[in-house]
Design brief:
The protein is of the alpha+beta class. It has two domains: 2-40, no CATH class; 50-102, SH3 type barrels, CATH 2.30.30.30. It contains two helices and six strands. It has a six-stranded antiparallel β-sheet, with no helix packed on it.
Length: 103
């Protein structure tokens, strides 16, 4: 990828993030939260969705399948969230797109 990490190809604000990502790439770009969020700023479709990391602690949110969760504490990289209907604990990536229901 090194020959392609150039300002003629990518916007200059993405270059440092891309260079860092490709030093040790993961299986998916979405596991690199900073890069994923930066890339989404260039998407043509802008939605009213929020990211999990932006939500206040204790807020309730909905994901794409309609299930409701309550945001908990951050672990090392992910957030503990409790499913409202079952009480089960799930871990969410900070860059997961969700719909805020209540704070």
């Amino acid at each position: 990828m090194l020959p392609f990490i150039r300002p003629e190809i990518f916007p200059s604000q993405l270059l440092p993030l891309l260079a860092k990502h490709f030093r040790n790439p993961k299986a998916s770009s979405s596991t690199d939260a900073r890069l994923s969020i930066a890339l989404q700023h260039f998407d043509m479709q802008h939605t009213d969705k929020s990211y999990v990391f932006e939500l206040p602690l204790g807020s309730v949110f909905r994901i794409h399948n309609g299930k409701l969760y309550k945001k908990g504490n951050r672990r090392v990289k992910r957030y503990e969230c409790v499913e409202v209907s079952t009480g089960k604990l799930y871990l969410f990536q900070p860059n997961a797109e969700v719909e805020l229901i209540g704070g």
